[in-house]
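help with this record:
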Amino acid sequence: MTHELQEVDKFKFIETNGGEEVLLLLHGLFGALSNFAGIINHFAGKYNVVVPMLPIFDLPIREATVSGLVDHVKEFVAYKGFEKVNVLGNSLGGHISLLYALEQPEKINSITLTGSSGLFENSLGSTFPKRGNYEFIQNKTQDIFFDPEVASKELVDEVFATVNDRNKAIRIISTAKSAIRHNLADKLHLIKSPTLLIWGDHDNVTPPFVGEKFNELIENSELHFVEKCGHAPMMEQPEAFNRILQEFLLSTSPTKVLR
C-alpha cells in the first residue's frame, strides 16, 4: 500500500482517486489503515477508495463513543462533498457504518459489513486491558484470526502499546461500552440499502450466528462465509474477500465500474 496519509484540518485519510464511485472503508476499535491493504490494492484503480482514520484516541473523553465517531464520519463525508458512498466496515467500523446509514440513508449506495458489532460481540475479556502483560495481549490478538500467525509481532506490539497508554485505554473502554449500549436489533429493519455480509466461519469475536442474525434482520442483505477465517476476512483471506466484494459492488453499481 503506497498511498500516503493525508492530513487536512482534523481529518486524516487515504484516498486513491481511482474512480468516480466512492468506496469508504471504516476500521475497527484496534484497526488501522493497513488492515485494508488488500482492498485498497485491488480496488484502487476502479473506485475512489477512501479510508478515514477514525479519531478513537483523539476525541475528548465525553465524545469517545460510537455516536462521536459517527459524527466524525458525517463531517468527513460532508467535507469531501461525496454525494453517495459504498460504505464498508469491519468490527466497530461496521457498527459505525450502520449508524451512519440509519442517520443519512440518502448518502448510501451500498453497505458491506464484515465481523460487525451492533448485535453481539465477545469483548477482550473482563480483565482487559491487562497492562504490561504481553502474553495476554498476544493471545487475545491471535484469537482474532483463524491462523494465529497472521497476528504478526508488529501487530501485537501495536496493540500492546495501545493498551498500555492510559489515555488510549480509557477511550477504548469508553467506546466499547457505548457500542454495547447501541444495540441495533430493533433498528435494522430500517436499513433498505443493498447490504453485503462477509463473515469468517471461525470468527470468535462476532461468531457466525451474528452474521446470520444480521442477514435475518436486514431486509435487502446477502451473507457469505469465508472458510478458515476469523474476525478480519479482508486481512486473512483477501482474495476470497475481494472476489465476493467485487461481485456485490458490480451488482449495485449504477455505472458498472468493474466490468
The chain is about 40% helix and 15% strand. The domain at 6-120+183-252 is CATH 3.40.50.1820 (Rossmann fold). The two ends are 24 Å apart (CA to CA).
